[in-house]
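Convert to structure. Protein one:
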Amino acid sequence: MSNLKKIVFSLILGLFITALAGTTKSYCENISLVILEQAAIKHSPNLNKFEIETKLQQERLEDQQYDFYPTLRAQGNSEYSCDLSNGWGSVVSVGDIVQSTGTKYQNSFSLRANYVLYDFGTRFQKELASKKAVLASKSIKQAEELKLRLSVLKAYSIAMSLSREIENLATIVNYSQELTELTDRLLKAGKKGPIDTSRQFVELKRRENKLSLREFELSKKLEELSFYTGKQFQNDVQFSELPRPDLSNFLFNIEKHPGVERYQYELSSQQAKTAASQGEYFPKVSLYSSYLMYGSDTKDVMDSYADVSESNFTVGVSLVIPISDALRNRHKVRQSELMERKIRSEKRTLQEQLQTEFNISQRQYKYLLNNQKQKCTMVDILQNELAMLSRLKKAKEIDTETAITRSIALLEQETALNQSIIELSHELLRLQYQMEATRHE
């Protein structure tokens, strides 16, 4: 009867542990790459910053449009003019300035308009520079979004690989503990020496330390994902499988990469700025007009306002020739040309870097594909061997130590296979992201 009670108690305890494990697992948070990417894009302060920068560039472009419209200015002057010689003299007008030798209160109100007729394309070049700056800002935002997606993909892939490795390592540690206990019993029975026991104990501690290290690395990667997404994750999260896109028709246009396009737009913008600076060497032809009302009184300021009735209208053409400014503008042109050279150098560096990464990725893809096939073959061999060992163990034709050792070897091979599968999926997705980034108008 006591044995029956023990069996019933063991079954109840096993069912309780199974139910508890199932309940705990149901509370584990399930995360996927797509959800994390969406959260990261929404949370990213850098993307928000570049979005604001794009709007700022758009506002600068709108501001540039006003250079093509006439400038209007209304002005009112009220002053007291004192002739120190206490005499009357004639009124002298020089441009917009009216001088009188008499002592009096005088007031004037004017409305002036000015329109640039011809400036050797300076305004058009400045407008073009602003338009290209807007496009460059949009490309920077696209490049930052691509960079963010790649960062999330890398952190997610590593975290998932670590999570799978931790699961297998936990089982391997349990097997190692069984081997340690078995070795201790064989030592007491005189079938094992102290060296074998010490070696097995060291191996157990090594695997425990490795498990602890992998758990620490997983917590760091989860913290990195929290940084990107703004969400907090626990070490017991469940990772969804990575998709494996078909890239048999992979096309990668480096010139359409947002990072390269950014430099292309910046170069066009800088070239337009150079042309605008060069246009400052030439004269500027403008049409101007003004309407002026004025009045004065020698004794009372209020009567001077009442006297405002006389008026005149002027219209004319002005030609402004920069002389000293042209000498100074020479340095602006030189600075702009040097900036063009800098942008070309940065663009070339990025193009070579992307081409190198693409070539490496193609080779790595082929290597990972072959490596995964080899690991799959090795796992299949070990699984067949383990099944055979299990049958031999039941038939008592093989010892427990050998069966556990081969089980550990199988788990280690499965860990390597899982890592290879995740690495291959990561590489395919990375190439897909790069390819998608070059497919835009």
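Protein two, convert as well:
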Amino acid sequence: MKPTRSTSLLRLAALTAVTSLVALGTPVTTAAAAASTGGHHRPCVGSRLPDHGPARDVLRIAEQAKAELDLKSVILRVTVDGHELVTTALGESMTGVPAEPAMHFRNGNVAISYLGTALLRLVDQGRVGLDDTVERWLPDLPHADRITLRMLGASTTGLIDYVRAPGFGAAVYADPFRQWSADELVAISTHADRLYEPPGTNWNYSHANFVLLGAALEKITNTRLDVLLQQEVLEPLGLHETSNSFTPDIPTPVLHAFTAERGTYEESTFWNPSWTTAPGAVETTDICDLARSAVGIGAGELLSPAGYQQLLNPGTVGLGHATDTCPEDVCIAQTEATHYGMGLLVLDDWVSQHPLFFGYSASQDYLPCEHLAIAVSTTNGPNAPASHNAHVIAQRIAAALAPDHPIPDFG
């Protein structure tokens, strides 16, 4: 991470408080400051539309990307030094229903960054060690005596990703409302040969690692995972609009999603996300919480300095190489510039996550040296590319606001 702040962002930070109050109207309350007397907090609302300056540049990028990528909606929030630069929603949730910043959407693997942070908080508290093997908590896991908590959080166990397993995608699309159990999902990965031996010597992304990590955290703390994440991450960061659901329900107001993944453009809002991560971490959020999450997780607010360093590099740098059993697009090279941390991505100077599934795309990105947070959520139009569209927008915003710190692609 570069320690100095660019002149452009210093000016931007100085302007932010002024534009929030003058050019943009009443500022949106940050999630951490949202709680007021009586336990109430203000909803996430949009800024007054800017007519000039950095906020206008961000809005223009979003408008252009929405048209270019055929997106049904784009919701975004950008903050500098914790102050709102711009919050806006473009397009529609459903036909005739405008998208709004307060609408809830699925946050996907953003919740995995909460699992990583929760694990590191337990390490900071002296309750576990990262290199503890997991047989005491996951006795039925094959070779549990060789797999550590670090390997689960950093995704270096060698377990295949059940999402990439033959037939899994077809099964999900054949019945997108199916409720998948953690045991079913983990069994797909554990019944296949591991991609490399011994565990910890290579890197590949596997959803199974985080399902297992969630189960281990429950056993370590004797606390249900959704409760644990609420206690250790969501509440301390003030993420009042972020919550788990054990069903496909989404709290109102809802940002509806649509996809053409099954060959016809259809609504996918309430397709079942139970396969995406550990039960208890299948969450929804809003854009204000996502921006606050980018700061809180990306700055390591809840961790000791040593814990924060493990968050950014738990030993993954230098791993990732193709083998006879693991191609290079699976065992991806982990470099100093782009690598997987403890449940998140380090993309050069940025700390990121960008989920993509069932017509939803989101991106949370934080630049520590500039205190710049970008949060974007998108839904697809009929001809939208099947890619990380929200992250594309975040990359473009980063290029405009912090040109010395572009967000690179991963893998």
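The first strand starts at residue 71 and ends at 80. Residues 53-68 form the longest helix (16 residues).
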